[in-house]
Design goal:
alpha/beta; 10 strands; D-Maltodextrin-Binding Protein, domain 2; globular; 2 domains; ten-stranded mixed beta sheet
């Protein structure tokens, strides 16, 4: 009996050592110096996640991580920079969905191709998207906004963080389905747009809760509707667009997400090693608790192939939305 027990203990020890060796082998494939390029200014959901990920990579693996914000051209500046970088795992892209799957639905002249210039590593977090107005807008509900905008078409404008981004395409779809024609006012980032919404220069905006929730709670914005399938725990009293039964908008469901990608020719071994570490970090309780403070939720563990397939499905979905909005790429 004792011999069997000892053999069992030895087997467990060997398995543990083997598992550790695999883990260290994976970690050794990850560069010691990493640059996380973000296509938006600080404070965007992708930026928040990039900084949190960088901090954890420093703590857990002792890596040197720099977050490099390169906003402009609806994300194209950052994506072109990363796609042209050496494919060694040192330069990575942390982006929300807009430059990856939304802009390609509206612009065929981009200096990058998501499917051929990038190697998806992992989905990070996702967030609810909210439609809100400034206090200068005298209406208090989505139904009132639609009714008033029909009668006063020159009174309503909407903001976005650039042409071809999520807020732009969703609002164009919104206009097409409700018969409105609100004027688009693009900005380089949410912070600039928020200043003009608070000042009354712009009426409405679709944006993610990580950016907008603080202004909503401060009373500077009036939340009109959530674009998710169900109400968000972060604003439980705000109805979904589907709940409000606005004619033409019954199928409008939008979820913001962010992911991490590498230049296309990055070795698969490095991609899978990064996926293992990133998904492990984002599914720790510490990270989940932090994300909740930012109105974000983490994706379950998944593979790079899962992320690739998700991007492909999103490209189809956003292409269909652009077509329904009457936008020709």
């Amino acid at each position: 009996m004792s011999v069997s027990v000892n053999i069992l203990k030895l087997g467990v020890l060997i398995l543990s050592l083997f598992t550790c060796m695999i883990g260290w082998a994976q970690v050794s494939l990850i560069p010691k110096n990493i640059r996380l390029v973000v296509p938006f200014p600080p404070g965007n959901a992708a930026d928040i996640q990039a900084r949190a990920l960088g901090e954890q990579l420093r703590k857990t693996l002792g890596l040197s991580v720099i977050v490099d914000n390169r906003p402009g051209a609806s994300g194209a500046i950052a994506l072109q920079y990363v796609s042209a970088s050496k494919p060694d795992g040192q330069t990575l892209l942390v982006s929300s969905l807009s430059p990856l799957v939304v802009t390609p639905a509206t612009n065929k002249a981009l200096p990058y191709n998501v499917l051929t210039d990038f190697a998806p590593i992992a989905l990070l977090g996702f967030n609810d998207v909210v439609l809100f107005s400034g206090n200068s807008v005298k209406t208090h509900s989505l139904i009132e906004v639609v009714d008033y905008a029909r009668k006063n078409p020159d009174d309503f404008t909407y903001a976005s963080i650039g042409a071809g981004t999520l807020a732009h395409l969703v609002m164009e779809y919104f206009d097409a389905k409700t018969g409105l024609k609100m004027r688009h006012v693009p900005y380089k980032g949410s912070a600039q747009a928020y200043t003009d919404i608070i000042g009354g220069q712009v009426s409405l905006m679709f944006d993610g809760l990580p950016q907008s929730l603080a202004q909503i709670k401060a009373g500077n914005f009036k939340p009109l509707a959530i674009a998710s399938k169900a109400r968000t725990p972060f604003l439980p009293n705000v109805p979904t667009i589907n709940e409000l039964k606005v004619p033409g908008l019954s199928n409008l469901v939008v979820v913001g997400w962010s992911g991490i990608l590498a230049p296309f020719a990055t070795p698969k071994e490095t991609i899978f090693a990064l996926n293992s570490e990133v998904t492990k970090i984002f599914n720790t309780q510490e990270m989940r608790d932090f994300l909740a403070t930012q109105s974000l939720q983490a994706y379950p563990v998944h593979t790079p192939d899962d992320f690739t397939n998700y991007i492909k499905s999103e490209l189809v979905s956003w292409g269909a939305m652009a077509k329904a909005a009457g936008i020709e790429p």
